[in-house]
Amino acid sequence: MMRLPLFEFRAPHSLEEAARILDGEGSQAMPLAGGTDLLPNMKRRQQVPRTLISLRGIEELTHVRIEHSGSRLGACLTLAEIAADARFRNGLTALAQAASLVATPHIRNMATLGGNLCLDTRCNYYDQNYEWRKAINFCLKKDGDTCWVAPGSPKCMAVSSTDTAPALIALGARVCLVSREGRREVLLADLYNNDGADYIRRKSNEIMTEVALDASRGWKSTYWKLRRRGSFDFPVLSVAAAARISASGVVEEARIVIGSAASRPLVAAEAAKFLAGRLLTAESIGEAAMLAARIAKPLDNTDFDMSWRKKVTGEFVTNSLRELRGDDVRRERESYMRVSSL
Fold first, then answer.
1. Which residues have a Cβ under 8 Å from the Cβ of 304 and sit 6 or more positions away?
2. Which domains does the chain show, CATH number per domain?
3. pLDDT class for 338, splitting at 50, 70, 90?
4. CA atoms of 277 and 217, how far apart (whole Å)
5. Does pTM top 0.70 for this prediction?
6. Which of 79, 167, 277, 285 gets the most CB atoms within 10 Å of its CB?
């Protein structure tokens, strides 16, 4: 049985109190929301904070404001709440789909939006118990000096496995970070580094408080996920796509994001730029899929063969754009669910 290490537990009732405690405790403290990622990591001794600061008693972190001018979503909203809320449809469908595909119903009842956005990167050599990792002399991400995925690499190659980040980046989301020093708002796409160890640009004394979205009217979005089992598993590839399409069917603006193919979600800017001003025809969709798949370079550190995951990237982009066009792609979704369950 893996047990949690000893730690001090703090339960503030306001954001100001939480920020004050986090600042005072320094890098040895971590915020705790749902705990569905942090607590298992602590059991494996991947993360060993001396103090956990619970955010669950801070009511202002659970708000939902969806208006014509834009939306504000509290970082402690659970994924189950997002998946069940009918307001997360049409323009925000990608977020609802991503939230609904995380893990199991029990975990979604605990896991939070902010927690999923700050999810630790994953790797076959890292996501093991302490004794297993010690037997290989650890790895570059934790306690070692070699990335076993790419031994010559100067940086860690662990993979970003958040579901909601690709969806929200495709929706143009921003996140609010609060500390005793003040408040700052950054594009979600700019929050991540392409380094599995140093994967996020949130300072150790900052708390993610909310996600901000511009008006979604006129937009359509979708999220596709590949995983070994039809439930529970982390993504080993994902694609989020969003587009604003005119009444005549012309793409006015588009965003495509590839997840779980690098240490950060990858924005397929060239593919999105290509689609602008074009109809979603078979030819334009095929070209955009090729451009998007070009940036995905999965490595052999998660489930499934990496060359097959590369191939599926293009197929996921194709099917996501067909879905935005209005095609019925349920059969294609189901076919990948059957493949992933093998």
1. 226, 228, 236, 237
2. 62-117+159-340 (3.30.465.10)
3. low
4. 19
5. yes
6. 167
